[in-house]
Amino acid sequence: MPRRLESATAQPYVLGLFRIVVSLLFACHGAASLFGVLGGAAGSGGTLDAGTWPGWYAAVIQLVGGGLVLLGLGTRPAAVICSGSMAYAYFKVHQPGALWPLENGGEAPAMFCWAFLLLAFTGSGAFGLDRLLSRRSSEQEESTPERQTPVAA
CA 71, CA 53: separation in Å to the nearest integer? Predict the structure, then answer.
């Protein structure tokens, strides 16, 4: 079993599944806050007023950033933004209440922050549009004959 877990062939697939699960959960937070679905903003069933700082902007980042990472499209930059928004949420909203995440209710922002930071460094893994698009562009470059530039005599 340990050899199978250390296998380089399985790593992109596990990373891809990790990306999908984390970003889906993240996007659900944004959808709940913006549209009142899945229990609504903070479980109240309501929505956040458009443009309110910082909640509404955080919800937009959660929905859009989470959606992009879910698709594996622009994974690294989107993950950096998502990670940064959760670092801000932790240090500005949760950490002033108490030192430890368990005491201040900041477990989710802390976990999302570190998970997205990991994805920013590792990329999308398998099942991502980033990988598919890079494969297509490299195939097109290989199939396009190189043009020779005329040499001036």
Answer: 27
| Structure tokens given for 74 | 């622009």
Say if residues 39 and 45 touch (Cβ distance below 8 Å): yes
CB neighbour class for 42 (10 Å; exposed up to 12, middle 13-18, buried from 19): exposed
The alpha-carbon radius of gyration of the chain (Å, integer) is 20
Taking only the tens place, the pLDDT of each residue in 124-137 is 988 888 877 777 77
Helices 107-122 and 75-88 meet at what angle, rounded to 10? 160
Write out pLDDT tens, residues 35-92: 888 887 777 778 878 888 888 999 999 999 999 999 999 999 999 999 999 999 999 9
60: nearest Cα among 24, 92, 29, 93: 29
Most confident of 5-14, 29-38, 99-108, 127-136: 99-108
Q: Please, where are the H alpha helices in 9-150?
A: 11-35, 55-60, 66-71, 75-88, 101-104, 107-122, 129-143
* d(C-alpha 134, C-alpha 130), whole Å: 6
98 DSSP assignment: -
